[in-house]
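Complex record, two chains
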Amino acid sequence: MKHVLQRIVWLPLVLWAVVTLTFLVLRLAPGNPLDVIAARAIETDQIERVRAEWGLDQPLWRQYLTFLGGLVQGDLGIALSSGVPVSRLLGERIAPTIELAVSALIISTVVGVGAGVISSITRQRWVDYGVRAFAVVGMSVPWFWVAILLIIVFSVRLGWTPVGGRITAGMPYTTLTNFMLIDTVLTGNWPAFWSFLHHLALPALAIGLTSAGFVARMTRAAMLEIMRADYVRAARARGLYERRIVIGHALRNALLPVLTLQGLQFGALLGGAVITEIVFAWPGVGRMLLDGILRRDYPIVQGTVIFVAFCYVLVNLAVDLLYHVVDPRLRRA
Amino acid sequence: MAATVSSQSSGVQQARAAPAASRWLRRALNLAHRDTLACIGALFLLGVFTGAAFAPVFSPYNPTTPNVRERLALPSPAHPFGTDELGRDLFARILYGARPILATGVLSVCVALLLGGAIGTASGYRGGWLDNALMRLMDIVLSFPAILFAILIVAALGAGLVNLIIAITFSLVPVFARLTRSFVLSLNHQDYVLAARTLGCGDGGIVCRHLLPNMLPLLLVQTTALLATAFSTSAALSFLGLGVAPPTPDWGMMVSDGQRLVFDAPHVPFFPGLVIALTVMSVNFVGDGLRDHLDPALRNR
């Protein structure tokens, strides 16, 4: 319990550190935002005006304090290129990225745990080899390439899925929560619902399948270790059905390391979502980040990086807390 | 050597030389049999490095000169991997395009190993406030997803080969620092370190003569694993257009350029992506082989 409290107390400090590091990396690097504005501005007094407007004529510490003060109120600054508040831009992009990352997480967990369990209990060597090969391939293959392979097979050759986007253009759609799956179900808009699932399938599979390999490998290792444990032997001695032993005894315990792994993987999934969004023209945070980088729009880069890092920190904390819920031994300790 | 020796002296030595050669061969075959995947991986990597270093020897084509008459040619004996939309030979571009990814991957892992190793050793060996300060610093970096931190650095510094190396290095340093620190902590309490200290061996001596040699095998295994990460990160960054500038060929960039051609010429994005996958996979295989060999406790993980 003490450990949990400690983590929660540390949280604001960790978030502050993330913000500060992001700010410093972007400000201390050569090529400051003014150069970008200068490249666009025609007259020098315009540069001076912009400089004052963005507070760039202030010393670094004052800029930092202004930035922190704004952040506490949910203000991430204003995009240099469009003049729109970054928090509003981000607000539009969060839902698509979460949709993608969560569906990828579900695919990777279901496929990974399933494959891992099957390979650990099967007596057929080739199944086991197959799963291990799948794990190595999944760990090695670049996400963006898998995404393109899926496009070549399912969109170009078979014509089953669209090449990119989040929903068919021109499809009538009412926004409630900005999460399309929820919105379309709530409004009973089934054509839009199917269109969305069609668009989601390939990007989610691209991320989910590649990370499933690693999950399978972890599950397999955990299962093999647990199947040798005394309580499994005891369960066998009591004459329980094998299926009951595997699911009720072994898998329940094997899921603990897998849970940790998935928490850590979620960061990778977010990173993968950033890259996969670009392949599939998925209108999420990753697309926004890359556009920000290419336009050298620092407030956008700063805002998106901070947002993704916050997600990562919070998910890891959640996993840590969940661990205590799932494993009673930790609660007593 | 064996030939000159045997020509001068008696047949006894000749008889001894022959089994030595065959023993060496048998040992190599044995290794290949026991760890086929690691050997295949090592051979593939050798091929990639050789191909990149001596690219002009393996392909007569220039990787950057367009040849409009042979646009989007399918794989054929003249163009083993076909050509791209400007008629440039894909095989040649893949040979030359290996250079940026290999250079960024290997260099950033080496620098990160040195930096992270130094931080981890100092942290683990000294302990106290230094340990606390360094490790909290590493924790901050680790609270970013690795690829995101690399993207952040490239965003700040701008695209380009050197900045790519800096970005990947910084995303790997905390991992190396933590690993080294844990190795130092576990070795520091071994009896032989205690013995050396009792005998009056200084800190430098203990670190260099006792700790480093003993953690080297473990570190080598992890370094190989992280080399795979470095290659993947490098490929991803260059896929995002944050690597070398065109027309210099580069694997990640070739995939992103080829993405437009999925309908007309899917082989253009296919082959560069395939070599990225095979290279990372080979590093993983070699890493697994090394681990089985050097760190038997971790086998089957």
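Note: The longest helix of chain A spans residues 242-279.
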